[in-house]
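User: Structure tokens for both sequences below?

Assistant:
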Amino acid sequence: MLIDWFTVGAQLLNFLVLAWLLKRFLYRPILDALDAREQRIAAELADADAKRAEADQEREEFRQKNEAFDRQRSALLSQVTDEAKAERQRLLDEARQAVDTLRAKRMETLANDTHNLNQAISRRTQQEVFAIARKALSDLATTSLEERMGEVFLRRLRALDDQVKEGFATSLKTATGPALVRSAFDLPAEQRAAIQNALNETFSAEIRVKFETAPDLVSGIELTTNGQKVAWSIADYLASLEKGVDELLKTQSRPEAKAGTGRP
């Protein structure tokens, strides 16, 4: 069989033209489309990775913010709790202090009322005893109570020990004013003269004396000069009596207090 090289050449040329045409108009667009698709897919994958990384970063930031918020909330809650406890303690302290102050004031008021009542009772008792003693002496003797008091005061004045007498003598010498004799009643002239003579004799000098009436000295007489004092008063006996009565009442109140605190 003979080969027709012209036909073979023409077919080869047709094949080459066809291959070039396929490559130029068919394969190249397909390859370009595939390359473009691959690039688009790669870009989309890269964008997805970037978005996933951004999402991861935002999730981490959100977690950190949540943790910071939880810590801040715990700190604020602890601070508020501490402040509430401190305020509660302050209010309790203020209330306790107010109660203590009120109790102290009530106790002070009660003590003052009791003291004033005791003083009133003491004064009334002294006055009543004075009146009873005056009436008794007036009924039993011709000597008035004032005269008897003056005599007792003079005896006490003459009976001063040496140390007290020396102190009085020094005070009388250094005093700028007269010695003061105070009495609960107006001393008659005879008693004033007797007291003046007793002072002159006791201190061997002419003593200047000023007489005053002092109702607060319940049935008593006192001599004062430059800080020195000698006195006699029924109040001294009543004070001793009052002290004895107070001690008796305290002694009687102790068993009652113990009995009141005892358990059945």
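Moving on to the next sequence.
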Amino acid sequence: MSTKLTDSNTLFLEGNTKFYVPKNSLIQTPPPRTPVFFNTMAKFKRNLLISIFNSYASQSSHKLTFSDTLSGVGATGLRLANESNYVQKIYFNDANVNVSELLQKSINYNNLDSSTEVSINEANKFLSNFTNRDTRFDFIDLDPFGSPIQYIDSAVRSLKINGVISLTATDGAVLCGVYPKVCLRKYGSISLNTEYFNETALRILLFSLASISSHYELGIKPLFCHTDKHYIQAYVQITDSISDTEGKIGFLGHCSTCQNRVISELPILSCNLCSSDNKIAGPIWTGNIFDKSFLNIAINNTDDSNLLKLYENALFESSLPPLYYVTDNISKNLKISSFPVETILLKLKENNFLSSKTILHSTGFRTNANIEEINSLLSKISTSNI
């Protein structure tokens, strides 16, 4: 909601924070980049970042520095400065020269001058000013238009050991398999368009981060990942142990004939169930995309019911294998009516398989059963209902 108008901008309320935004960003879809970018639809994403930041910071002995690296109007950093008790200093940066005046008005309005600093610079140049050991950030947000790949190296070098990168990609068509050759060029990995396309995209993004971090003998530990229609996002801790990455890079093999999927260190060219040719994606991150310990911390540090449900559901699936299944796709392939996810989970449990819903798809589920075993169980349910 907006509460006060000026000639070209409005004082806007989100969360517990008011800040100035251009009027046209509230009435145009998609929001324009000029004069300064602001996306009202990203409120949940900002709520999530503040929650992740607070959960991470709650385990630290000191307050944290935060880089709002591609800040636009500064909505993320302003809300964090105003709504978190764990902030030492927020650094805002954007290459758009129009940012400075509008952002300073918001800083003044919220009395945040002592805990903020504003820079107008290209993101890599900005980050390069913080590569010395005593100036590195505790938490960096990278949320560009399109791919974040061109900023990752600079971000890794300007982050403290065990600091966190919030990494967002909006080039979904590239990461999700529509343009696999472009993905190979940008991310060093071949993408694949399957029903679990967004998980493949996440794992490619994590692979790229792991690969760049390994140049500096650093490892990665994903804390929490999620996707939306418009973006792929990962919150990842950068560690001083390359062993956190070793053994967690591999390939995906997907059988178009029977829909079997397999994760392996090296590409597996044929399906181990029906012997058809596999389609290959990768390299990808094959390790966990959720950290159990961190999820428990996040659950204990939020009173937002939507976030709490998201964390709890992620916790349920965190121990299950990569690459979820989608109920509608399975039913379509079997030429039977679709079943509610809950029905499938119950049947899997009755047959001693592990299973859980996934936060990555509304009708998706994870299980340690393979596609043959799933098909067999669903066929029996369908037959019994006739």
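User: Anything stand out in the second?

Assistant: Confidence is low (pLDDT under 50) at residues 1-5.
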